């Protein structure tokens, strides 16, 4: 009887494990399929793509033609500059704010943390028109050009990504024992010195995870980049990819090739830092 009961428990566990594996497999396939289809589409001719058939032979010419159809390198350069500077600016501000909220109690500190997270519940589209009008008014009244400039997009992206970055880093800093800072203070460090010399070096995992999040969000953003930039001097990759459709003709084959090229640096960065990204995000979720 006991043996029968034990076997039934093992069978239930095995069924649960099989069901979990099936669900995970479906989720993985669902995640990989769009990427695989994007890559296959980038190797198809325009005619084959329109009919939904994989052409033979494989058409690598799309990857050469995509650079000639539009100045894709200019969009790549703009994205790297804007996303890179946005990541640095956002991290510089979010690190200090997140540490202050996590470690120091001040009037309204609890409400401040909740308010920071609440700002992410408002759709970004609602800010588009007011932000654009504000930039135009600043330009008309003070002569400071913000629309169609690097600083305009960097300021916009930083403003959007700072709140959530503070929330992520706040949770991560909250897991660091306060005794570490106290020991540094005893050794002669100021509060700022303790943060720079002790806290930040052991917080690199969380900071890198937050930096990856910021960079990826800025890299994929289209709506504000489309409205706040007007020519190739400042337009980013998502805007450039959009021009393959409806600019002169609908070249979905070139758009897919450009999408693959755009995805490669992001994938390289993510896989190179995935351990730090995952451990940083999970550490920040423990307490906060």
Write a concise synopsis of the structure shown.
It comes from Clostridium chromiireducens. The protein is mainly alpha-helical.
List the helices and strands and how they pair.
Layout: H1 2-42, H2 46-51, H3 61-69, H4 72-103, H5 109-118, H6 128-142, H7 150-173, H8 178-186, H9 191-199, H10 204-220, H11 223-228, H12 237-242, H13 252-272, H14 274-284
Helix pairs in contact: 1-13, 3-13, 4-7, 4-10, 7-10, 7-14, 8-9, 10-14
Main location: membrane
Subcellular location: Cell membrane
Domain ABC transmembrane type-1: 76-273
Keywords:
288 residues, mainly alpha, MetI-like fold, 0% strand, disordered C terminus, transmembrane helix
Count of spatially separate domains: 2
Distance between the termini: 49 Å
Helical/strand content category = mainly alpha
Number of helices: 14
The coarse silhouette is: flat
Strand element count: 0
Largest β sheet strand count, sense and barrel closure: none
Strand percentage: under 5%
Summarize the helix and strand pattern as letters.
HHHHHHHHHHHHHH
Name the helicity range: over 70%
- Give the CATH topology of the largest domain: MetI-like fold
CATH class of the largest domain: Mainly Alpha
Write down the overall mean pLDDT. Answer: 82
Radius of gyration, CA atoms, in whole angstroms: 24 Å
Pfam family, one: BPD_transp_1
Keywords: Cell membrane, Membrane, Transmembrane, Transmembrane helix, Transport
Domain ABC transmembrane type-1: 76-273
InterPro entries: BP-dep_ABC_trans_perm (IPR050901), MetI-like (IPR000515), MetI-like_sf (IPR035906)
